[in-house]
Amino acid sequence: MRKVALTLLICTRNRCASLAATLDSVTLAAAAARETGVRIEVILVDNGSTDGTPDLIAQWSQDQPFRVSLVEEPRPGLARARNSGLAHCTGPIIAMTDDDCILHADYFVRLLAAFAKAKGPAIIGGRILLGNPADLPVTVKLEDHPMVAPPGGFPGGFVMGANLAFGADVLAAVGPFDERFGAGAPFVAAEDTDFLFRASGLGIQLLYDPLIVVDHHHGRRDVADETRLLAGYSFGDGALYAKHWRTDRRARRMLLADVGDVRLDLLRPVTTHAGVRRFYCFRLFHKARGFLSYSLMGRRTG
């Protein structure tokens, strides 16, 4: 029997309807991969769902010609769920997507081709398109050209957890996701940015390949929802700065840059977010909240 070439990890909590569409797209993408002789496995982590998710997963799993493993992680938190799933991954390449994303049919084929071209350990992210034009244009990644993250920069937003993959060798070097960060955790976001930050600090290359595509059906259409999301992202980044402040000059450099960017509210104001008047001040305020929160709580729980 051929060895697993790639593991897809999906964590889910109470999103039965969107998860069904995600799983249908996985079936189609896996069929396209099998035509090229590629064997995949899927790890599904149920993070304490109370809707019809367990029944949906059980039914879908029975109908697939590839290995599907269900992991139950009742303690809430996306990073915690990911870590539980990662402990069961057997493929040399581990890909992650969200339970409201749709994989394009050539997803696995494109992903494996990208890793075949990478020289050495790598984290590779792909394009994230807006799944429904009625949704607000957030949590998307639209660049249509390959990119390499500068090794000394801050990787926030360069690639995103909804379309992210890395080698098992990267996981062994970087370690698990920090469970204090991300959805359902005290610092609410930035669990993927923290992982990328630690990886790039070890010299692991961060790559973006626009041919690896998912559609994100996030469902956010209310300006207030978008504003809360942006505040959470900045809060998580601020906590991440505080985590690495003493040990990594990149964190200090980025926080100073954020302070300097406040002047851009006058010089080049951002007008794409209806709920935010002064974007750079807004972002700095919530990063300061995150920094203070980590300083007061994070080291005690680290």
Overall description:
The protein is of the alpha/beta class and 302 residues long. Helices cover 43% and strands 19% of the residues. It has ten helices and nine strands. Helix 2 links the parallel strand 2 and strand 3 (67-72). The radius of gyration is 19 Å and the shape is globular. The termini are far apart. The relative contact order is 0.13. The mean pLDDT is 95.
Task: Give the radius of gyration.
Answer: 19 Å
Largest sheet: 9 strands, mixed
Strand-residue fraction?
A: 15-25%
Q: Helical residue percent?
A: 40-55%
Runs in which pLDDT lies below 50 for 5 or more consecutive residues are: none
Number of helices: 10
Overall pLDDT, averaged? 95
State the shape. globular
DSSP E strands, number: 9
Write the element-wise H/E pattern from the N-terminal end onward: EHEHEHEEHEEEHHEHHHH
Distance between the termini: 42 Å
What structural class do the secondary elements suggest? alpha/beta
* Quaternary organization: single chain
